[in-house]
Design goal:
Belongs to the FBPase class 1 family. Its main location: cytoplasm. It is an enzyme of class 3 (hydrolase). By secondary structure, the protein is α+β, with helices and mostly antiparallel strands. The chain folds into 2 domains: 164 residues, Fructose-1,6-Bisphosphatase, subunit A, domain 1 (Fructose-1,6-Bisphosphatase, Chain A, domain 1, 2-Layer Sandwich); 130 residues, D-Maltodextrin-Binding Protein, domain 2 (3-Layer(aba) Sandwich). The chain contains 7 helices and 15 strands. The strands form 3 sheets. The chain has an 8-stranded mixed beta sheet, with helices on both faces. The longest helix is centred in the first third of the chain and has 19 residues. The chain is globular, with a radius of gyration of 19 Å. The chain binds 1,6-di-O-phosphono-alpha-D-fructofuranose.
């Protein structure tokens, strides 16, 4: 089902990583095609099971995971770790890379036709799976996402800025549109699930209250709020026009470290954001300085415009 044709311009992709990126893009084009057909392709949002921590697994979650795993097996990826699978898989005896993936992020938006995405992180492979993935996020050699939105976009960093590609559906090719994305240093927009306010920690509540106070408050400016419920869509908006996203730890059972996963969500998002001049922390500590203690470990996530993320950090320091 997955074409192995050249589907992305090679110019800014390190030569050794090109086959893996091309395979990821070829599957993404097929996934975009399935998503674009919506209900014509069956019940993509039907619950078909549960993943590691009991999160609902939708049909498209499982389908996308199978497509990515099949396309990467036998190539340069030795270890394949997925949100949809308990353990990392050995997909090649000699592959030089360890790839972690959230095959379909934003599943709760599948059946309401809202943008969803794929998030991936690549390390150099070590002998074992654990040592390949449970290491400082700064050791990633690539991180990025595919956004299945009104346009299908690939955003990726190899440690030399953050590039954006747009899919030309007619040609089934990703075309480079930005060589060096830049997150605006500040913005009026914040993104948080406000329904959790009563569960927030003191510094998070103080920061959001400051935004809600508008121009008479500590930020001296009026604010706006966005919450899509799809991490990739929030990231793309912030990369494009700035803002700050918060999924903090809160007092709900199981949410002590928030909801988002370090290895295949927070670490790659942190890489593309920081490589574009933004910041990404757990509220106080840079995400890229942290390492996961388990493949599916969660970590609080605050990222976006550098000045706004710094304000959140300052609030944590003050309230510590
Ligand atoms: P799903 O994949 O289960 O829809 O979760 C999406 C997500 O991990 C992330 O993409 C969103 O930012 C976040 O969850 C939304 O979480 P809430 O539903 O708690 O607001």
């Amino acid at each position: 089902m997955t074409t192995q044709a050249t589907v992305i311009a090679p110019d800014l992709i390190p030569e050794a990583l090109y086959p893996t990126l091309n395979a990821l893009c070829a599957v993404s084009i097929d996934v975009a095609g399935v998503i674009a057909r919506g209900a014509l392709g069956g019940a993509l949002a039907a619950q078909v099971g549960e993943n590691t921590d009991g999160d609902q697994q939708k049909a498209l979650d499982v389908m996308a995971d199978e497509m990515f795993e099949a396309a990467l097996r036998g190539g340069d990826v030795r270890w394949y770790a997925s949100e949809e699978q308990e353990e990392a898989l050995k997909t090649s005896e000699t592959g030089r890379y360890a790839l972690a993936i959230d095959p379909l992020d934003g599943s709760s938006n599948i059946d309401v036709n809202v943008s969803i995405g794929t998030i991936f992180s690549i390390f150099d492979a070590k002998e074992g799976a654990e040592e390949s993935f449970l290491r400082p996020a700064s050791e990633q050699i690539a991180g990025g996402y595919v956004l299945y939105g009104p346009a299908t976009c690939l955003v990726v960093s190899f440690g030399n800025g953050t590039q954006q590609y747009v899919l030309d559906p007619a040609k089934r090719e990703f075309v480079l549109v930005a060589e060096a994305m830049q997150v605006p240093t500040t913005s009026k927009e914040f993104a948080i699930n406000a329904s959790n306010e009563r569960h927030w920690t003191k510094p998070v509540k103080a920061y959001i209250d400051g935004c809600l106070a508008g121009k008479d408050g500590p930020t001296g400016m009026e604010h706006n709020m966005r919450w899509v419920g799809s991490l990739v869509a929030e990231t793309h908006r912030i990369l494009t026009r700035g803002g700050v996203f918060l999924y903090p730890g809160d007092s709900r059972p199981g949410y002590e470290n928030g909801r988002l996963r370090m290895v295949y969500e927070c670490a790659p998002i942190a890489m593309v954001i920081e490589q574009a001049g933004g910041k990404a922390t757990d509220g106080a500590t840079p995400i890229l300085e942290r390492q996961a203690d388990g493949l599916h470990a969660r970590v609080p996530l605050v990222f976006g415009s550098a000045e706004m993320v710094q304000q959140v950090t300052d609030q944590h320091v003050m309230d510590h």
